[in-house]
């Protein structure tokens, strides 16, 4: 390797990077090009999001491109890819520029703009917010305007699609040449969805990503459903809505129910199947307003979980609807069982495996297998948040494992997330229940110290992350976190004890895993090092910082778990 040549190549990157970012910024402008044209721009915006994420991880947004430690061959691949992106965007821009700007020249919501600090660092000045509009005033031949088109030409559409395919290939070249840097397709939903805030853009994103990024498309579809639910809040569900099921469950008697989760037979259009029933109880003493509130919440959650197909990493069962059992005083969600599993065997929750009193306990699980479980549950929560859903009961009792046919033990490689009885869509219009799951013994340890359901304060994604941290700690030690905390310990003190226990685990699970758990427990998800002290939550700014928080969740939680190996 010639180190001088390698350095020369890397030194040439900043100017190319600025050019590419600027071309993306100018190409992705709202124009009057119809549905097909808007769809193509959305596809280009997805590639822009991937490129910008690569810039972030390479250090171009914080002034340290030296994070690119590449050999000469990899440096050449990176330079070639970025030069290819620039040329492709030039060609795409020349096509797009034929079409009329939308009224006012607004930048679309899917133009993933880089922060001001990038432009200040790169150009020495901040770009004006109306800078893109001035591109419409360019004179093509130096003397006059060309008349802009309003309809999308077929030839332009085919050529533009080919150019967008080229952008995707160049992004892949960057990712592979830079090894761990760059957004991989599985984590793309968390990079893109926080910035897509209206139904029209989500509908385009669902269509634009369906072929190339199906997981992103499925997540966008679920977030679209969440936004539609928020829009319809003023219209409570009718008693006979499309999700409530009557006289379809084949039950012997209510006394046959041993727990709040039970396998029962379900009659659907003449055919019988085994389903999982999960109960949501309500207090005996309640008023009509509370009844309506709970019914509305059950309907919202069932509608979200009925969305199909779901992203594979979502790790959720399909909801067929719900029933209202007034005798037992509960609503019951009806879940379809996962395929290829033994329907005669009840699922087993994660906490059962380390319970000494359970016949199904497993005293030892290989570290590599525990890492796999940790990755799966963390990614499940990541996808849940990306789709705009708060879980609100993220603990080991809600991680379920099913037993495959002809197997003697549940399949530990395929966990599923349940326990949606207190879940709700994320957003200002949605309120949490006054009746709270913290009353259940053993679950308080998963609750963030700042979470107070009686204070009428919004539930935050950070509270779910704290529960994830406790769960990841339990997976590491393979026993309940309650064994680490004396009885009646305040939640704030319990957190300190859990953090200290985590920091002592490095010889067992490694520095990467310890850092992940510590970030969840302290709330310091932005820290590149292992944090040791809890940070204050920015409650009022959570929505504003949603995109940044999701990126930190990907970068410092999920992607670091991907680097944990036994």
Topology:
Layout: H1 3-11, H2 13-27, H3 34-58, H4 72-96, H5 116-123, H6 154-177, H7 188-192, H8 199-209, H9 214-231, E1 249-250, E2 261-268, E3 271-281, H10 288-305, E4 319-325, E5 330-336, E6 348-349, H11 350-353, H12 367-386, E7 389-390, E8 399-401, E9 416-417, E10 424-425, H13 461-477, H14 491-503, H15 506-509, H16 511-522, H17 546-561
What does this structure look like?
The protein is α+β, with helices and mostly antiparallel strands and 566 residues long. The protein has three domains: 3-183, Up-down Bundle (Four Helix Bundle (Hemerythrin (Met), subunit A)), CATH 1.20.120; 241-337, Phosphorylase Kinase, domain 1; 363-561, Transferase(Phosphotransferase) domain 1 (Transferase(Phosphotransferase), domain 1). It contains 17 helices and ten strands. A five-stranded antiparallel beta sheet has the order 1-2-3-5-4, covered by helices on one side. A three-stranded antiparallel beta sheet has the order 6-8-9. Strand 4 and strand 5 form a beta hairpin. Helix 14 (491-503) runs antiparallel to helix 16. The longest helix is centred in the N-terminal third of the chain and has 25 residues, at 34-58. The model is unreliable at 1-9 and 128-146 (pLDDT under 50).
Features:
566 residues; alpha+beta; Four Helix Bundle (Hemerythrin (Met), subunit A); Phosphorylase Kinase, domain 1; Transferase(Phosphotransferase), domain 1; 3 domains; 5-stranded antiparallel beta sheet
Tell me the Rg in angstroms.
26 Å
Query: Major sheet, described briefly?
Result: 5 strands, antiparallel
Given helix and strand content, the structural type is alpha+beta
As a percent range, the share of strand residues is 5-15%
The total beta strand count reads 10
CATH architecture classification of the largest domain: Orthogonal Bundle
**Low-confidence spans: pLDDT under 50, at least 5 residues?**
1-9, 128-146
Helix content: 40-55%
What series of H and E elements makes up the topology?
Answer: HHHHHHHHHEEEHEEEHHEEEEHHHHH
Total number of distinct structural domains = 3
